[in-house]
Design goal:
Blueprint (H helix, E strand, L loop, with lengths): L5 E4 L3 E3 L5 H8 L5 E6 L9 E7 L5 E8 L10 E9 L3 H7 L10 H11 L2 E5 L4 E3 L3 H14 L4 H13 L1
Parallel strand pairs: 3-7
Antiparallel strand pairs: 1-6, 2-8, 3-6, 4-5, 5-7
Helix pairs in contact: 2-3, 4-5
C-alpha cells in the first residue's frame, strides 16, 4: 500500500448489487479513516465492533474509539462497524502493535480504536441493508441477489426459483 489510503471490505457482510456505499465512502475520505456504520439493536450488538461517536451537522459522525463485541450494557453507542472501511496506511502499524483482545485474537477493531483515539475517524451511515453471509438466510439471500443480477444466468435462476416455489 505504501503511503496511500486503501479500501478494506470484509466478506461477511454482502452489499446488494448496485450499492453505492463504497463510492460514497471514498468520496468522503478527507485524509482520515472512514468507517461505515449502522444502528443495531441491543439483542445483536454483542456480535459487532461498536464505536463511540460525536454527531456532526452533516449526518455523519466523528468516531473517537471502538470496542469489539461488547455486551449491550457496555456498548458506547448503538452504532456498529459493518466491515466497510477506507483506511489510512498507519492502520498496519496499529495492527502490529495490537495485543490479543476479544476472543483471544488480534482484532481489527482494536487497531481502529487506536487510530480513532489518535485522530477521530469519519463515520458514514450505511444506507442500505448489507446481507449477513455469516447467517444461513443471509448467505442464501446474497447468492440469490448475485444470481438474479447476472445476465448470463438470471433467467434460468428465476425459472428455477419459480419451479421451487411451485412445489
Amino acid at each position: 500500500m505504501g503511503d496511500r489510503p486503501f479500501t478494506c471490505l470484509l466478506s461477511d457482510r454482502f452489499p446488494l448489487p448496485g450499492s453505492t456505499l463504497l463510492a460514497e465512502m471514498v468520496d468522503a475520505f478527507d485524509d482520515r479513516t472512514v468507517l461505515a456504520l449502522e444502528r443495531v439493536t441491543p439483542d445483536v450488538i454483542h456480535r459487532y465492533g461498536v464505536v463511540s461517536v460525536s454527531d456532526r451537522a452533516d449526518g455523519r459522525w466523528d468516531v473517537h474509539g471502538a470496542v469489539e463485541k461488547p455486551a449491550a450494557v457496555d456498548a458506547p453507542s448503538d452504532l456498529a462497524l459493518v466491515g466497510r472501511y477506507v483506511f489510512t496506511p498507519d492502520i498496519f502499524a496499529d495492527i502490529e502493535a495490537a495485543t490479543p483482545g476479544a476472543l483471544g485474537e488480534i482484532q481489527l477493531t482494536d487497531a481502529i480504536d487506536t487510530q480513532a483515539r489518535r485522530q477521530p475517524a469519519l463515520g458514514v451511515p450505511c444506507p442500505e441493508d448489507l446481507l449477513d453471509t455469516g447467517l444461513p438466510l443471509g448467505l442464501a439471500e446474497a447468492t440469490a441477489a448475485v444470481a438474479l443480477g447476472r445476465e448470463d444466468i438470471a433467467d434460468e435462476f428465476r425459472a428455477f426459483l419459480h419451479r421451487l416455489l411451485a412445489t
